[in-house]
Design goal:
It contains nine helices and seven strands. By secondary structure, it is α+β, with helices and mostly antiparallel strands. The chain has two domains: 53 residues, no CATH class; 134 residues, no CATH class. The chain has a three-stranded antiparallel sheet with strand order 5-7-6.
Length: 202
C-alpha cells in the first residue's frame, strides 16, 4: 500500500537507532532531539543522560563510511551488473559490442545500460537503503539531518547528482575522502550520508 508520498508504508516507517544502529519500526522508536532511540536502548540511553551525557549529534552517533570502502562497494556493484548486462548485450549486438566506440549501441543498450541500472539502484536504495555492494560492507544511506530513511525524492536526486559529481574529473566523488561527514556532492545535494551499521552487543 502506498502512502501520500508514493512510498510503501513499511519502508518509510523505519529508522536506525542511534545507539545499536539496528533498523527498527517507527512504532518502536523514541526521539530525543535529533536522536532516534529504539525501545531496547531507551533505559541505557536515559541512564547516560542522567549521568550528564549530552545528546548525540550525527557526527557522534554514526560512523560515516569513507571513500575506499565505498569505492570497493561500487566495484562490487559494477561487477554484478556486468555479469547480468553483458550476456544480454552480446546476445543482442554480438561480440563486436565490446569494441564499439558509440555512446549507445541501440535501444536495448539504452535500456540495459542506463534505464535499468537507475531503476534497480533506486529500488535497492528504497528497499534496503543500500546497493548489494554497500550491503556487503554493512553500510546504509540515511538522511543527513535525522538519521532516518531518506525519501524517494532524496534517492532520485542522489542518483541524478552522481553524474554531476563525476563530471569535473570525478571531484564530486573524491570529495568523500576529504569531507568530515564523508559526503560526496551527490550526498550533499540529496541531504544524505552513508553510515556503517554495527551489530547489537550481546
Amino acid at each position: 500500500m502506498l502512502g501520500p508520498g508514493g512510498e510503501k508504508h513499511g519502508m518509510k516507517d523505519e529508522a536506525i537507532c542511534a545507539e545499536c544502529h539496528q533498523t527498527v519500526s517507527r512504532e518502536d522508536i523514541i526521539r530525543y532531539g535529533n536522536s532516534v532511540i529504539c525501545a531496547a536502548c531507551k533505559p541505557i540511553f536515559l541512564q547516560r543522560l542522567r549521568e550528564g551525557a549530552t545528546l548525540p549529534t550525527m557526527e557522534t552517533q554514526f560512523v560515516f563510511v569513507g571513500f575506499w570502502i565505498r569505492f570497493w562497494a561500487g566495484i562490487i556493484d559494477a561487477t554484478l551488473w556486468m555479469i547480468i548486462a553483458y550476456p544480454i548485450l552480446i546476445a543482442v549486438y554480438g561480440r563486436g559490442y565490446l569494441n564499439t566506440s558509440g555512446f549507445i549501441a541501440g535501444p536495448v543498450d539504452l535500456f540495459v545500460s542506463w534505464i535499468l541500472p537507475a531503476i534497480c539502484t533506486v529500488g535497492f536504495w528504497m528497499r534496503k537503503q543500500a546497493t548489494p555492494g554497500k550491503m556487503l560492507v554493512n553500510a546504509r544511506i540515511v538522511d543527513a539531518y535525522t538519521g532516518e530513511r531518506p525519501s524517494m525524492a532524496q534517492f532520485i536526486v542522489r542518483y541524478i547528482m552522481y553524474f554531476l559529481a563525476a563530471l569535473p574529473l570525478g571531484m564530486g566523488i573524491l570529495w568523500v575522502a576529504f569531507d568530515k561527514k564523508k559526503q560526496g556532492w551527490h550526498d550533499k545535494l540529496a541531504r544524505t550520508v552513508v553510515i556503517r551499521l554495527t551489530k547489537r552487543a550481546s
